[in-house]
Design brief:
The structure is a homotetramer.
Chain A lengths: L12 E6 L5 H10 L3 E7 L3 H10 L4 E3 L2 H7 L4 E4 L3 H13 L3 E5 L6 H14 L3 E4 L6 H11 L6 E11 L8 H16 L6 E9 L9 E8 L4 E7 L1 E13 L3 E5 L7 E10 L1 H6 L2 H5 L3 E10 L7 H13 L9 H27 L4 E3 L5
Parallel strand pairs in A: 1-2, 1-4, 2-3, 4-5, 5-6, 7-10
Antiparallel strand pairs in A: 7-11, 8-9, 8-15, 9-10, 11-12, 12-13, 13-14
Chain lengths: ~375, ~375, ~375, ~375
């Protein structure tokens, strides 16, 4: 599998982390611990915050502005962990300066911005990668491996639940807050990526907070099957579960069950194909389905820090071994579904008077 | 609570069970055991099947036709457990003959039929009741009691999951097979019943069986909140779970956990109302939400046979103490949502070319 | 595996059930449904109870005394489901009359009685079998199969928990009430049966009920490993769990988890054997143990009525295909451990003054 | 409750941490973060390890010997986190120098050493405290509170399970490795502390590692009830569960279930006391027990770092507000049970030839 990075003989790559707030420290810590990277600088408008972070990560330089960082420091790459609406501006400046860029999720605040970032990086010949951290967890890597190997057979349905008691975010609704995780994971594990025909979103704001706090996102995938995501900030029980149903086996990922995170059910459902072939359309509707109850299997998962693997993949991509598994295009597919969900919600809201459609038919995204 | 039936001093009511197939034996057995009822006859076209059932239920008469039953036997009531598409005809004949009628779910195969049954029973002054058995389980009765007492505060959202590996039914899709349970329960527990503004259904037929095998049903209730139901015949894991989120508390019903079927989380989410009052619309969007982690409580549930309570309620209704909690009107509300789901699915299917709406705006159902 | 019984061409064997109380109806129902058996009579001092049971099981004869049954009815076998203290007398009479006998657990009220029954049956050339029903469940049969195949490697420890809120029995303590299940299962699944070196019992009677309501039973098996059983009538949580730890794999049987009753952990613990060989005794104590985290596997289990298989095995034994897997000797081994537990408890109670041993060294039981 | 420490107006107490290995960093970090403490020095023979720790904890002094620490630094207290067999020597030296001392568990490697430490501290008028960290977790504090308030009624039994796949320790067996947690918790939560009449230990060494890897420890408490602890290094499933059964309610603590760590079952078992009073001893044995199935309740638990509370309690004790809840005497009671377990194991091992007792009758420990 292409994910595993080789420990290389190359000299360490030089990186700066921009943003020392919530996520930046995690990135900085991992860069500091890696032999493939040298953490050169922490950049933040808040110099004290940057200084505090620098102290815990081997005392890289502390820089107060992006201009200064790009002008004065010899770096190969920039890791951006600032608020989402600033990603585009910072990334574009770094790309223009010829730097490789990894961006905290979401890639950008809209797909136009994201598209521009992808194109600029392509033009500049630099790597643009999204830090979709979940994709580098042992469980998700195993899911990707199983799907790539066709272990589940044809996919039949996907159902993901990500609910908990969460603070209402000031700037985004529950879709933009939580669904990027599910969407980036789907893009990562589905062979060929997340390509949707239609997107339907249903949101609810029972607290009158001015934004959806409960959300259901349904996607008809190119293969015709339905993928469904439930996100919810108001649930007292925390659930992180994804079910991927296949014609041969079905996989359940329960991220909150450390003793059995992944379970593969060797239980298949079959139409009586013999009958179907012989019969006309009417009969086919009556075709019986049989099911088979086989063993259940839970693969052992190794343990490592996902962020460590992510930055290792970033390094490998820069050195040309392969495109990053969560590259800019992948992140763009996620953004486009989120925008389609926005549109679906807006049309529905309009539709309460006019009864128009709330389903957004997606253009081909590739 | 009005559900509990008095053991009465009345003479036993006389009942016949029509249909000795899958569900009829359960009804017959409970009528036979009840002191409020006398099981007079089993009626089935298949006389041998009827005879077998009669032997196990105290040897009531065995009758081969409904005409004969209604003409020759002195009965107060008829319990119908035949295929759904025959409910209307049998019930109408029994009502016309002045009999009280209880019908296995669904009440009828469409709402026009159901409406006619309701109206005829009203005109004839007979009781028409639906055997929504789940509503008479200890867990659902307790949920109804908690909601009636306002224990959860304002309802914020409802989410129900009913999935398992199931045989594809020859005559109905997964919505009509499984969702009547959820819908009848919702109608039973929500104060005022299940009244929907809009119904959106998304179905998927990944096996090409000619009908939905995976379904999502979303309802905007009159109160504005979203109720969501997930039904699925293709899931290797069996889940029977309903979450009812309230402004004060949230309830989780896990029907497959006999040791803790109902859990009430005293965890609330609050907008900073003070801030909201002072602020204009823009600020309100930024209002912070705080949450409170309180105790969890799981009420003890008594144990009894739901069907025994159901037929006791049927008797009490006939004797005039109160309308049955799952009367014809209740069953009709369930039918109308299922029909709206049908329409939503049909429009969606059409809409894939024309991009029309798949949401059905419901007329006021009361 | 020898458990599976052949559907034979023999004429049905003729059986009478003695005792129509709690367990007799289950036996009678299964005999009545079996094509290998003909249920000839129900025998009970309480003729009305016997009559009621006969009505539900195809109307066999109803007999009020054992003498009459053995004298007047042409039967091959007797199934005894009377109180434990009557097992010996009834079984001896039936064996003397040349009948094959199956006895509800426990085989007898003490091992002297049990031994006499075993010897008499051997002398008479009749089959004596114990109805250790649990042994014929799909889960236990699978455990036996896995252990017979050496799937777990060498056994390292066994731990069984059988606790719930239960009524204090008038005639037996918690050991005699619940532990026969665990003991008969262990005898059934351990290759070679349950052979113990020492038995230690610790009981507690915190309610002053005059008998142990909480019990711990530890057995040193012939192989040197420890098997431990916890039984408890006072636990508000119900647990039915057995762990069998092996050098290669470990098996967990959770009988209350229908979705994953059996789980096999491919997780081994290894001493650094290399080091052990080279080192002297002192060093050996410091030998490090490494552990391996492998996959988890849960075998599919078929579904059938255990009692149906038990009576089928009884028939096969009578017809000479093989000894019953839960024969009199097996039941005797269970009795002897229970008696050793009694002795351990008695010595302990004495020992509080005199400080004598509470561990009973078992004579060789074979 | 006496556990909650007041935020005081006293100047910070001055402390040194001795031992920078596994546990020392946790202590140092908490002292460094506390406003009640000033971390003055880290003392370790391995100066580099001490230096590394000092860098992360505000750069206290780094000292290579205890003599130097006690001679040259102005400190109030010493926190000892060195190997168990060195606790006694280090603590005695610190106590002699007039320092307050907190010691990582176990207090000492044997009870004679522990007794000497307790007496010396008493003579010197200094505080001697054991770092029984578990006792300062929200769950254990809540259990203590519930038991102190008599919420469970009379205690009936206690059962604790602490099993997982663990490395065999070079210096201690599974009892000394794991049971100190259970014992210190029991001493903390049982009103009056852990006072045992007899201790019975059964150990097993199926891997021939030279020490018990599977252990069962039963204690008859002064109240006459049984407390049972199961520890196991060879279990592929990890369990951390304690059940405390009471006459009114029963408590289950499942430390691996973050969503419902504590559950209180309002389920009681009652002997028919009326009958017992009237009846003689024989009848009493037949007294029936009834049980009641009430609600289940799971209290909300606050979240904080237990070690932070522990050092806060240490400070409060020094300032004279109250004795530390896990003082030297408490730790000594734990040591004495572990030694009694040793004796029980030794006698058992001897007893296999001579059939002597393996139960150790405890002297009164207070």
């Amino acid at each position: 599998m292409s994910i595993a990075a080789d420990i290389s003989v190359y000299p360490a790559l030089r990186v700066a982390v921009v943003g020392a707030g919530y996520w930046g420290p995690n990135l900085a810590r991992n860069f500091a611990m890696s032999t493939e990277w040298e953490l050169v600088a922490i950049c933040d408008l808040d110099l004290e915050r940057a200084q505090n972070l620098a102290r815990k990560t081997g005392n890289p330089a502390v820089v107060g502005s992006l201009d200064e960082l790009l002008a004065d420091y010899d770096i190969d790459a920039v890791a951006i962990a600032t608020p989402a609406h600033t990603h585009h501006k910072i990334a574009m400046q770094a790309i223009t300066a010829g730097k490789h860029v990894v961006v905290e999720k979401p890639l950008a605040d809209n797909s136009a911005h994201g598209t521009q970032m992808v194109q600029s990086a392509a033009n500049a010949g630099t790597i643009l990668m999204a830090d979709h951290t979940y994709c580098y967890t042992p469980a998700v890597l195993k899911i990707r491996e199983l799907l790539a190997a066709g272990e589940l057979g044809e996919l039949l349905y996907i159902d993901s639940t990500r609910i908990n008691l969460g603070l209402v975010q000031p700037d985004v609704d529950v879709f933009w807050d939580l669904a990027p995780h599910d969407l980036s994971i789907l893009d990562f594990v589905i062979p060929g990526g997340l390509n949707t025909r239609t997107v339907t979103a249903l949101g609810s704001d029972p607290l009158h907070a001015g934004k959806s706090c409960v959300g259901y996102l349904s996607m008809e995938l190119e293969s015709g099957i339905l993928a469904h995501i439930n996100v919810n900030w108001l649930s007292p029980t925390k659930i992180r579960q994804m079910v991927i149903g296949g014609s041969k086996k079905t996989l359940v990922w329960d991220d909150l069950n450390p003793q059995q995170r992944l379970t593969v059910f060797d239980r298949g459902v079959d139409l009586d194909r013999q009958k179907m072939i012989r019969s006309d359309a009417e009969d086919r509707k009556g075709a019986t389905i049989s099911y088979r109850l086989g063993d259940t299997w839970s693969p052992a998962l190794s343990e490592f820090e996902p962020l460590g693997l992510m930055i290792s993949e970033f390094a490998a991509s820069i050195r040309g071994s392969h495109r990053p598994p969560t590259d800019g295009l992948s992140a763009l597919r996620v953004l486009k579904v989120l925008e389609a969900a926005n549109d679906s919600l807006a049309q529905r809201s309009h539709g309460e008077q006019t009864n128009n459609s709330q389903t957004l038919v997606m253009e081909n995204q590739r």
